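A quick aside before the break. I want you to see a complete sequence-to-structure record at least once, exactly as it would be stored in a machine-readable document. Don't worry about memorizing anything.
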Amino acid sequence: MENTGVFVLIGLAAGIVSGFFGVGGGAIIVPALVYFAGFDQHRATGTSLAVLLLPVGLGAVFAYYRNGNVDVRAAAVMALSLFAAAWASGFLANRVSGAALKLSFGVFMTLMGLYIVVSSYGKLGK
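That is the input. The structure line, written in tokens, reads:
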């Protein structure tokens, strides 16, 4: 497994970003697997989902919960709908080309980044 070091670095980066910002680790893991480990988009997406299954569910959540920062009811409701949507979208994503999936991911990440920048503008000193 020649990419072990790359995988360790990707995992560390995803963990840090997830813990600090609540950003899904997939935002880091998917592009990193594509560009640094040579995965195609489908394999990167599937691997990212497998990686995030337990660490995200158990890692930072416990720290936030201990500090009273988890709304359990909201999390349970969202988890049920997320499960259904993730299953359906995973089914559909495997039926489109890797290029279309990569483009969609890039557009989504760009729009989310722009939203964060625009909504934060003028609030930095407050």
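Two observations worth writing down. Residues 4-120 form one domain. Residues 34 and 43 are 9 Å apart (CA to CA). We'll return to this after the break.
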